[in-house]
Amino acid sequence: DAGVIQSPRHEVTEMGQEVTLRCKPISGHNSLFWYRQTMMRGLELLIYFNNNVPIDDSGMPEDRFSAKMPNASFSTLKIQPSEPRDSAVYFCASSYWGGSYEQYFGPGTRLTVT
Amino acid sequence: GENVEQHPSTLSVQEGDSAVIKCTYSDSASNYFPWYKQELGKGPQLIIDIRSNVGEKKDQRIAVTLNKTAKHFSLHITETQPEDSAVYFCAVPTSGYSTLTFGKGTMLLVSP
Asked: What is the pLDDT at residue B66?
């Protein structure tokens, strides 16, 4: 298996622009998580899905952030408009809910907003 | 919600020494305790985990010990090697065990 796939790996954008991060979970996994990692705040859970349904989005910082999972093999995290404080590494992870608690992380997207 | 504290934040050791990282948690109902390793430029990866029905689990040079009474668990790495240099995270289940709350991480540096 290729593991969790994220794209792009790096994104540099200007303040005010829309940013879309993409994730393909491991085939057969039914839970998907979006995390943000910064030096100051560590690894924060933004939102998670079970069976393509958003279960808890209380970690989404504000309305500028939105996430979708239209099918079991694809999810997006969108920031509109982006701000410099959104600069971070964003990780997608997947797991099989009902089995192990282990989460499999993608390589991350490093976002820089100037 | 679950409160997870991890210490130390950084740890420097000489190759061959042992390293210990400790994590404390607040929810006494927690029964699953994983440790993740994050290498530079990569996502975290599970390296070992333990459930509350045992006090210790070993896998070659790494081990995890659990003290449920005191609500803490620790990662032990023996005979450290330069490739052990990474950031290590503890985690505890939350939200009905659907999600994990991660500690702030420990940067381990193993010098040759």
From this structure: 94
